[in-house]
Amino acid sequence: MASTADIRNGLCIKFNHDIYKIIEFLHVKPGKGPAFVRTKLKSLTSGKVLDNTFSAGHKIDTIRVETHTFQFLYAEGDEFHFMNAESFEQISLNKNVLDAPDLLKEGTNVMIQINTETDLPLSVDMPASIILEVTYAEPGVKGNTATNATKPATVETGASVNVPLFINEGDKIKIDTATGAYMERVKE
What are the Translation elongation factor P/YeiP central domain coordinates in residue numbering (predicted)? Predict the structure, then answer.
């Protein structure tokens, strides 16, 4: 058992007969009344996100998890197949467990949290950013740069990303996996 003082991002807890991962939290100490902790919880079984407030000192039931490095192998329909980098054991996960499945490129290393009691995978943590090649982009219109103009581009995984007008087919771009937004062009 832990208390609200132990709450941190990424902590997995049992709450309302389900397993949740804490995405965001904020300790609040109002001038009047007791302190409390506002949290944003993501269900690891259904993927739903909910807001919850715990009073200060509230006991929470934590789950022991181990984090292992897995390599993404391939996708087959809604199933994504991964291989453990140390033991070479393979697992497959459903698409709805992943935060950004359309940005996963074959060979990408991800961190998978596994429940130590049941040996079931709980969540997949993507790298902060990923470098992908643009496979299709409309040509930029000259003189259309007075504002921060963007255009849609398709990357090698099939995802669509809004990019600046100077990005062309064949360019490699860095994408933020949390938001799916363009970060910068990568020169090699």
Answer: 67-122
